[in-house]
Amino acid sequence: MNAPLPPDCLNSPWQLARRAERMNPSVIREILKVTERPGIISFAGGLPSSKTFPVAEFEAACAQVLKDDPAGALQYAASEGYAPLRQMVAEQLRTKAAAAGHTWEVDPAQVLITTGSQQGLDLVAKVLVDAGSKILVESPTYLGAVSAFIPMEPDVVSVASDDQGVDISDLRTKAAGARFLYVLPNFQNPTGNTMSEARRAALSTVAAELNLPLIEDNPYGDLWFDTPPPAPLTARNPDGCIYLGSFSKVLAPGLRLGFLVAPKAVYPKLLEAKQAADLHSPGFNQRMIAQVMQGGFLDRHVPKIRALYKAQRDAMLEALAQHFGPMPAQADAAMLDSRLTWNCPAGGMFLWARLPQGQRAVDLLPIAVEQGVAFVPGAPFYADHGDERTLRLSFVTPSVEEIHRGVAALARAMQEQAGV
Ligand code: PMP
């Protein structure tokens, strides 16, 4: 049945599909519009730092690709993706898993190059979700994934999560009949948290026991600051997981390239969905990325991104401690309710903070913008009841000096909101 039309469309020939009714403008994008006023220091965006884009390497790769095989680069191409790039992706995943102590024999035939990992989420939804299907997500989770799943009309169920990852006993109570659990083990968006080794091992075992497929989204995994994160969930049970990766955070999001690794049981259907969606991801961009990656470029380039982001995170931690007092090593609930609290992400782009009791992030935002700083309230990242006190702070795009000024402005805004 078609959805009813809004009254101003009554004489319009256009009848919207029910799924279109369920699509909403991203809450975050709406917030970002407000915060993009000139002069505002933004901790709100989710963009990688443009300082990290390897412009000269792309310039050289562009010329090389056109010189080597212009017809191949500019012609329609295979839906699976550019074979040398699929090979590189498989090799890198195998090497990283081995360094983390796991054998993961990634067959390049299981790698599908996607138009950003966002397309991976869309394909997963199309292939695995029927109207009314139960799907499980962390609490909070990546809003863009929920937006990709929603048009398929699922029943989205949140599983409790803490700073170690998914709560296994809550998962057990909710897993029956679920199509999958969508999970972000590394430097999660929005919290910056990383799932511990113990929790990964437990989740992997329980998911296998419950026959629950996992969708593992890992766009930030390479951006660790001190030590690499534990091995992916997919490396532990490749037949029970779909792994999503991205070139956006290690090279450039503008090329819109990512990849997925899927078990043989679902790969052909994901490929058919991909063919229907866009035939293939831009072949020219795929060749440029393969050209840039040749000779171990990422091994030299990614450490520079890590160093930059770590310095930025440290600046934010220092500024927060200066303005709000250091986070106590041990504190009771009353103490944590009385002050701003935050975590210390071990990688990625985001820090997660929580306002004192009685303050709501959504009310603080306009006051903060008046003071010259923006952030994203955390509540929209929850598929069910959001924690209204939470906020996401990105530390990668402002300079260190701006981070200090921005945190000072946040402190002023909080004082104003509290009426101090
Ligand atoms: N997953 C997560 C968790 C993300 O944060 C993002 C980007 N913000 C994506 C997927 C999509 O990234 P892309 O399509 O650029 O690969």
From TrEMBL:
This is 2-aminoadipate aminotransferase. Residues 68-410 form the Aminotransferase class I/classII large domain. Homodimer. InterPro entries: Aminotransferase_I/II_large, Class-I_PLP-dep_aminotransf, PyrdxlP-dep_Trfase, PyrdxlP-dep_Trfase_major, PyrdxlP-dep_Trfase_small. SUPFAM superfamilies: PLP-dependent transferases (SSF53383). Its cofactor is pyridoxal 5'-phosphate. It comes from Rhodoferax fermentans. One of its GO terms (molecular function) is transaminase activity. GO terms for biological process: alpha-amino acid metabolic process. The lineage of its organism: Bacteria, Pseudomonadati, Pseudomonadota, Betaproteobacteria, Burkholderiales. Belongs to the class-I pyridoxal-phosphate-dependent aminotransferase family. Pfam families: Aminotran_1_2. CDD domains: AAT_like. Keywords: Aminotransferase, Pyridoxal phosphate, Transferase.
